[in-house]
Specification:
It is a single chain. With 249 residues, the protein is α+β, with helices and mostly antiparallel strands. It has a domain of 171 residues: 3-Layer(aba) Sandwich (NADH Oxidase), CATH 3.40.109. 49% of the residues lie in helices and 11% in strands. The longest helix has 24 residues.
Length: 249
């Protein structure tokens, strides 16, 4: 197994950090690695917010589902899907750009998240732990105000970084589903109930499949934060779907 593959398999989410700063040169390398990520048409349809204001970082730990470890992280980056800058560039150059639409939104989100994963992988190579924070997509109105997010800028992912505690280093990485259930050849294959149960059998522990599934559904899919995330994302997405002149640009 080569070193890159080993590290990809080794990396896991870290939610407890040592009180240790990240060297500026290491931070620079992580950011450069993020910007080296694949990007649609080499457009880099993202903007990275480097959260250096500790008060703002603390506020984010509250607005992102009250997770104190966010405030303890040595580095916090928010990867914003950003089509606004391209619309502004086109307008500045005398083009007649159409208003950004749903396809632009999805493409920009892809760009942002790919850049984020490059940063996560680079950070791991320096011995840093990291954790994705999807909750930054929630509380649209509040985060727009806190981060000064204009229309066509969407906080696709927040990642917190820091040196993991010894307990976190030793913690076992969660298992993943078997490849046979995840990889479908050529076309999508609707899996029968027995295969779906088999796919998640490793997760249920001492519970029956139905017991585990009901609990997981209520904790994740039917949770308050899941409803809020969907509401907020609809708010961001609405700007792309209006199809009308936007004088705020």
């Amino acid at each position: 197994m080569n070193e890159v593959i080993r590290q990809l398999h080794e990396r896991k989410s870290v939610r407890a950090f040592e009180d240790k700063a990240i060297d500026p040169a290491v931070k620079q390398e992580i950011l450069l690695a993020a910007c080296a990520a694949p990007t649609a048409g080499n457009q880099q349809m993202y903007t990275i917010l480097d959260i250096t204001d500790k008060k703002l970082q603390k506020e984010l730990s509250v607005t992102c589902d009250n997770q104190p470890f966010i405030a303890d992280a040595a580095m916090v980056l928010i990867f914003c899907a950003d089509f606004r800058k391209w619309y502004n560039v086109y307008s500045l150059s005398g083009c007649s750009p159409r208003l950004p639409d749903a396809g632009d939104f999805v493409l920009a989100v892809q760009d942002a998240v790919i850049a984020a994963q490059n940063a996560v992988t680079a950070a791991h190579s320096f011995g840093l732990g990291s954790c994705y924070i999807g909750d930054v997509m929630e509380n649209c109105e509040q985060h727009r105000e806190m981060l000064h997010l204009p229309k066509y800028v969407f906080p696709a992912a927040m990642v917190v970084f820091g040196y993991p505690t010894q307990q976190q280093k030793e913690r076992r990485k969660p298992d993943r589903c078997a490849l046979s259930h995840i990889v479908h050849e050529n076309t999508y294959r609707e899996m029968p109930g027995c295969e779906l149960q088999e796919m998640f059998d490793y997760k249920k522990g001492a519970l029956t499949f139905d017991e585990w599934c009901r609990r997981f559904c209520e904790r994740k899919h039917n949770s308050d934060f899941s409803y809020e995330m969907s509401r907020s994302v609809r708010m961001y997405l609405a700007d792309y779907l209006k199809g009308e002149c936007d004088n705020d640009l």
